[in-house]
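Milestone 3.1: sequence recovery, worked example.
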């Protein structure tokens, strides 16, 4: 649906009709009218007719003065309506629907905004609206309404096809020109785009503004680089955003001024990302994001980068032997982030978790028993040896089942009570072929191991305080090492802050989780960066 928006001027008494001409797509459309509000809808309807379309609706913004009846019982709105109807009948065109809105208080910005919203709502209700704007004349502050309405329309992704203006100069003979001022009004898009780049780093509106304008390839690459930086930072991707920023500054450093408009864009980009350099260390990179107010990104980057900083500076690290030994055993190591991240975030929860340590010791005993190593066996191990010995004997002489030993009866009851699927019946027990098969079945299930050895099911170490304490207390300077110049208390504080921020980062990124107030996060990030500085300053390694 083609819609024209216009603001109505007062009709002047005694003005004769004059000719006006619209040049569009190499064609001239000549019309006449006694008031400058008339030429645009008339000429526009002829242009649309050539395109096989029509002007479907005209929204006229009036004031009380233009609605007031004069001596002839007609208002300016009715005069305008009569002139448009007469023209469309003469040209044998379907008359457009005319909708009038009255703006009563021209000095009230809220009423101007409300009228703009009403216009936008009318357009939104139309089927596939395509909007034309007549910026000619109108009441005082009409341009404020027109501009605000155009912005509201754009926010709803409604197409503004053209902004037309009737140039009436009484010192020049007719025909007077009807010209497009769309490009002039797009300066508001430019200013809005610059504001968004400066405030949020978002270049989307600038990219849209420059899309249909000729510009050097170097300028186009800067816009693409700005978009890449913005996207990667929104996604909180550490390496990708750093690479995008490096690329952006390479382009900014080699930029040669080409126009006042784009020079200003470059100036804003340099200011927005001031202080960045491809030579920044990981710590400086975190500080840069923090100083620029990127709280969410700083949370993510601190979480991603701190393990590398700690291990690469040998603040805390594992000996090569334990790394190789553990990597051979572990089937769960996620290689995507690498050993450093895994070491700080997962290794200690798996290897030094007290509950897992007890379960691991029990599983290791079952492993020894499966290999017929019966030295230094625990009470539970001795009981299991008695049980398997009786099972193997009963396989050959079922009469023994009439009076089984207490250990066997208790074992079978435990399996049945806890519904252990592969050992829950006597029939399954008597099908076990040998000791190795028996002990391998037991150690294959962690819950079974914990049941037999009366161990609580290992729980994940949830709190930042508990995990940071386990890490620091695991330092033995043989398997787990740390820089002797660094205070263990200081390192524990740093790790505690790290795991707290990790939980906050997950809360920020995942819907439904609760995170602390922004000011608390900002303060905690500052404290975490300060702790990292203190740790690095105290280390003995350069």
């Amino acid at each position: 649906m083609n819609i024209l928006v216009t603001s109505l001027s007062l009709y002047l008494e005694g003005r004769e009709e004059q000719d006006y001409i619209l040049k569009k797509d190499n064609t001239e459309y000549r019309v006449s009218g006694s008031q400058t509000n008339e030429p645009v809808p008339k000429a526009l309807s002829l242009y649309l007719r050539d395109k096989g379309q029509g002007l479907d609706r005209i929204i006229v913004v009036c004031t009380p003065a233009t609605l007031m009846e004069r001596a002839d019982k007609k208002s300016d709105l009715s005069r305008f309506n009569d002139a448009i109807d007469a023209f469309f009948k003469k040209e044998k065109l379907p008359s457009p629907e005319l909708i009038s809105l009255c703006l009563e208080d021209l000095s009230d910005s809220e009423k101007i905004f409300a009228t703009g919203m009403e216009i936008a709502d009318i357009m939104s209700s139309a089927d596939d609206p395509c909007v034309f704007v007549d910026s000619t004349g109108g009441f005082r502050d009409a341009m404020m309404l027109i501009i605000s309405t155009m912005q509201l329309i754009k926010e709803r992704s409604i197409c503004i096809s053209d902004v037309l203006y009737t140039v009436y100069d009484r010192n020049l003979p007719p025909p007077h020109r009807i010209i497009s001022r769309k490009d002039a009004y797009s300066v508001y898009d430019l200013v809005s785009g610059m504001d968004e780049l400066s405030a949020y780093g978002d270049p989307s509106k600038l990219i849209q503004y420059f899309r249909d304008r000729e510009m050097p390839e170097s300028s186009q690459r800067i816009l693409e680089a700005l978009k890449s930086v913005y996207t990667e930072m929104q996604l909180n991707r550490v390496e990708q955003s750093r690479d995008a920023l490096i690329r952006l500054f390479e382009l900014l450093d080699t930029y040669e001024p080409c126009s006042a408009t784009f020079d200003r864009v470059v100036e804003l980009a340099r200011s927005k990302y001031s202080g960045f350099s491809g030579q920044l260390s990981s710590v400086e990179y975190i500080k840069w994001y923090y100083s620029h107010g990127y709280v969410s990104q700083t949370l993510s980057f601190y979480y991603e980068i701190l393990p590398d900083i700690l291990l690469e500076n040998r603040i805390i690290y594992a000996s090569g032997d334990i790394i190789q030994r553990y990597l051979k055993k572990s089937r769960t190591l996620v290689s995507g982030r690498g050993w450093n991240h895994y070491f700080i975030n997962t290794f200690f929860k798996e290897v030094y978790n007290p509950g897992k340590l007890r379960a691991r010791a029990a599983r290791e005993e079952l492993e020894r028993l499966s290999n017929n190593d019966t030295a230094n066996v625990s009470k539970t191990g001795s009981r299991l040896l008695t049980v398997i010995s009786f099972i193997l004997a009963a396989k050959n002489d079922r009469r023994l089942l009439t009076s089984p030993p207490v250990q066997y009866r208790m074992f079978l009851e435990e399996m049945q009570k806890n519904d252990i699927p592969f050992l829950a019946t006597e029939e399954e027990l008597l099908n076990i072929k040998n000791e190795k098969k028996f002990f391998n079945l037991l150690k294959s299930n962690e819950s079974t191991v914990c049941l037999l050895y009366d161990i609580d099911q290992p729980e994940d170490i949830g709190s930042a305080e508990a995990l940071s304490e386990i890490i620091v207390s695991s330092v033995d300077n043989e398997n787990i090492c740390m820089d002797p110049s660094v205070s263990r208390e200081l390192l524990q504080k740093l790790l505690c802050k790290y795991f707290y921020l990790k939980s906050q980062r997950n809360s920020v990124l995942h819907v439904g989780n609760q995170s602390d107030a922004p000011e608390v996060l900002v303060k905690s990030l500052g404290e975490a960066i300060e702790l990292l500085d203190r740790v690095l300053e105290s280390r003995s390694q350069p």
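The chain has 24 helices and ten strands. The longest strand covers residues 159-167.
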